[in-house]
Amino acid sequence: MINRISAILICLFCAFTASAQTPNPFTIGEIKILKSTMLAEERTLNIYLPDGYNDKAKYPVIYLLDGSANEDFLHIVGLVQFYNMTFNMPKTIIVGIANVDRKRDFTFPAKIEKFKKMHPVTGGSAKFIDFLEKELQPYIKANYKTNDSTYLIGQSLGGLVASEILLKKPDLFSNYIIVSPSLWWDDGALLKQAPALLTGQPDNKKWVYVSVGTEGKEMEEGAAGLVKALQNSGKKNLKIDFVPLPKENHATILHNSIYEAFNILYPYK
Questions:
Q1: Does residue 154 surpass a pLDDT of 70?
Q2: pTM above 0.85?
Q3: DSSP letters along the chain, please?
């Protein structure tokens, strides 16, 4: 009898132990594969849906460049969750655009020979911008409950292509968060075009946040030059926040910079 009880107890213990050790998946989003005609390749999207996401509400969307799981996606999701929980940030969808070749996608064709030699596989930003406009945004609008509030976040070369979109197709997004933009590309060609590009733009409501750390003369002057061009554009509906972060460098700036951007939008009360 004792042996039978012991055997039963051992079986129950083993069953309980096995059950306790069975892991439950911890997920913060979903992965979608979008076949792009514009880019002639498949693109991975990491998508965060806020807690309580449902078909009755409509949500703002953050489009995140460098949005791979091993790049910036997790960091931005964490900040959005924090600001939604602690501050007054609305629940927001995040679309992380995983990279295939960021130098190709985030740069316009260089005219100066040294840039061509340094980075031979570049100059594809026009196709990438078409992908954002004609494939990605329509896909997100068709498959998720979105409103008209959109954000584009880009750092470094991502900040360069975000600046290009702001100057050439400004209404593609309603808010731009541009961190350490690589406006030195092709000897500052985009920055030199900025005043003329801004002159032809409609004066639509838009928010632009620009930030830079202690990252060298070219990077710092480029960010300041972009802000100056925007400030001198005469656009009354353009709100600009320039937040230098001198304690940060190119490796450390992103997380703190996005924190400061959200703090401007949704200050603690």
A1: yes
A2: yes
A3: -HHHHHHHHHHHHHHHHHHHHSPPP--S-EEEEEEETTTTEEEEEEEE--TT--TTS-EEEEEESS-STTTTHHHHHHHHHHHHHHS-PPP-EEEEE--S-HHHHH-PPP-SHHHHHH-SS---HHHHHHHIIIIIHHHHHHHS-EEEEEEEEEETHHHHHHHHHHHHSGGG-SEEEEES--TTHHHHHHHHHHHHHHHTS----EEEEEEEES--HHHHHHHHHHHHHHHTT--TTEEEEEEEETT--TTTHHHHHHHHHHHHHS---
